Amino acid sequence: MVKKVEKIEKKPVKKKEEAESFRGIVRIAGKDVKGEKTLQRSLSAVRGIGHTLAMVAASIIQKELSIDPKSRVGDLTEDQIEKIDQVLYTLHERDVPKYLLNRRTDFNSGTDRHVIMNDLIFENTQDVERDKKAYSWTGFRHTFGQKVRGQKTRNTGRTGMAVGVLRKAIIAAQGGAVAGAKPGAAPAAGAAPAAAGKPAEKAPAAKPAAKTAEKK
Predict the structure, then answer these.
(1) pLDDT tens digits, residue range 93-122?
(2) Fewest CB within 10 angstroms: 3, 29, 69, 86, which?
(3) For residues 38 and 71, is the Cβ–Cβ distance under 8 A?
């Protein structure tokens, strides 16, 4: 006898009830972050803050603000978010190793700084424009849109369209159209005119017939 296998009904899993104060999207230093992410992971989403610097910044925030780096961002209050922003915009004034800062010995101020988000984009743009005006080698490469750091450009970094391939395709299409055209038909628009042949030679004139001998 074959025994019937009874199906075991799975009990529905109850979702954890979120607190009323939980927010799905949180804005940290001008960057929208999902509220489900931890504080340390969300810091690395900010432009100008990498994985290592995010760990250092999270430890500073924990010491100064008593916020756990593993806490969810969506559970933080507005006041806590504002204080975190102040820390992120003044990282160079905190106990951060110098090699983690992105503006060491700044060109304008001569001091060690760290900029993030739109400030970082503005500073990078100014650096490129300064090189262009100085007409240095890097500025020369930036001007023509080429690679700057000594990379090879044989295969990659090409700009523009492959004009030679398009010309070959157009010429081949025009040649097929001319070959398929009927004799006497008008040439297609844009087709190259047919090469003129040599003029036909005239046939030699026929000799006059010999006169018949007169009868005596």
Answers:
(1) 999 999 999 999 999 899 999 999 999 999
(2) 3
(3) yes
Structurally, how many domains does the chain consist of? Answer: 2
Domain with residue 77: its CATH number is 1.10.8.50
Return d(Cα 11, Cα 202) in angstroms, integer.
104
Look up the domain containing 75 and give its range: 25-98
Examine the domain organization and report whether 34 and 68 are in the same domain. yes
Q: Are 65 and 31 in contact (CB under 8 A)?
A: no
Q: What is the pLDDT of residue 112?
A: 95
What is the rounded CA–CA span in Å between residue 193 and residue 99?
Answer: 70
Q: What are phi and psi of 21, to 5 degrees?
A: -85, -5
pLDDT reported for residue 204? 63
User: What pTM was computed for the model?
Assistant: 0.64
Amino acid at 165: V
> Among 137, 109, 118, 136, which residue's Cα sits nearest to residue 31?
118
CA distance 22 to 74: 5
